[in-house]
Design goal:
about 210 residues, single chain, 12 strands, Lysozyme-like, two-stranded antiparallel ribbon, about 20% strand, six-stranded mixed sheet
């Protein structure tokens, strides 16, 4: 009987790069035309979490991707008549499965925040990264989405001076309500282990109650 050969494990000394410029190498890259330059000296220190589903409450399909690339069929659903011609984008979109899409180079200004103000600064598009979660405002989100979101936030913090993370509802209160009460800020905080000061004030209250 021939003796078995010992198994040799090869451990890579140079793990694959997370970033190629402002593009995340693990994301499905689908470029949106809806972006522009950031202002000179803009410090990209804010992550904005959104929620979206098209039509609202329906998951799966490629309607969100189509919206961000200006290819949505406006006649495909009655709801689309109310957003006909809308030109928006986010840097990232996370499906219910946790699959990650990227539409805009993070070094560029995506069109996700609209009229907004946070940490004493207006025009949050200028210095933020927009991340859309597939979901409906008020509903919950999937464990796979939190896992992808936490990994993405950590990766963003390795490239940009991220100091804050907030929901669209926090940067545009009264105008926007996403990701809404179904989003578990306490869980995201536990996954990231970032300082409380990085999170919105009401998210800190949620953490203290659930602790």
């Amino acid at each position: 009987m021939t003796p078995s050969r010992p198994v040799t494990l090869t451990i890579p000394t140079n793990p694959p790069a997370v970033w190629h410029g402002g593009w995340h190498t693990s994301a499905a890259r689908t470029e949106s035309p809806n972006h522009g330059p950031r202002p000179p000296q803009a410090a990209v220190d804010l992550i904005v979490v959104h929620s979206i589903s098209l039509p609202p409450g329906e998951y799966g399909g490629n309607a969100v991707q189509a919206l961000f690339t200006n290819t949505l069929d406006w006649e495909a659903h009655p709801y689309y008549q109310g957003i006909r011609g809308l030109e928006v984008s986010a840097h990232f979109f996370i499906e219910r499965s946790g699959a990650l899409w990227q539409f805009v180079d993070c070094d560029r200004r995506a069109w996700h925040a609209g009229a907004s103000c946070y940490r004493g600064r207006g025009q949050c598009n200028d210095d933020s990264i927009g991340i859309e979660l597939e979901g409906l405002e008020g509903d919950g989100f999937e464990p796979a989405q939190y896992a992808t979101l936490a990994k993405l936030c950590s990766d963003l913090a390795s490239r940009y001076p991220i100091a804050h993370i907030a929901g669209h509802e926090h940067i545009a209160p009264g105008r926007k309500g996403d990701p809404g009460p179904g989003f578990d800020w306490a869980h995201l905080r536990s996954l990231l282990n970032w300082d409380n000061a990085s999170f919105p004030v009401d998210a800190a209250k949620i953490r203290s109650i659930s602790a």
